Amino acid sequence: MTTAADVTQGEEQLVVFDLAAETYGVDIGAVREIIRMQDITKVPGAPEFVEGIINLRGNVIPVLDLRKRFGLDFGTRDKDNRILVVDIGGQDIGVVVDAVTEVLRITPDSVEPPSSVITTADSVYLLGIVKLEGRLVILLDLEKVLSESEKATLTDVTDSDAEVVGAAD
Model confidence over 39-55: pLDDT tens digits? Predict the structure, then answer.
């Protein structure tokens, strides 16, 4: 997990992705893999931003839609959409993004802390803004995208669906 202090100490690598016409970056260390979109099984009673679950090589993985989580307009799904499988709190979670564009190396002097004008108590997941020539990348802390209770809910959803999947085998 990248922290603001980590970014100021040395070069970092980010996985950069698009979401609702904006560019975001996350620490490459949190990303387990990037997969193409696949069928997502809906889970009744899951939070609105949870798309459902997928079976990834025998593991049941909950999948979040970051557009919904951040309150952004829903976009159409196409061939560029990807699922980032990331480690959030020791649990693998899929995150739907519009497109993964690059792996980027950044230096401490390219990162500014988020302005108090754009941050609220609900935006603790914003680590900073990466300033590049001609564009900005919003740096996210995926560990803080979900509250502790939301992480627990995802664990409950995954565990109950893994039992159902296991019972069907």
Answer: 999 999 888 889 999 99
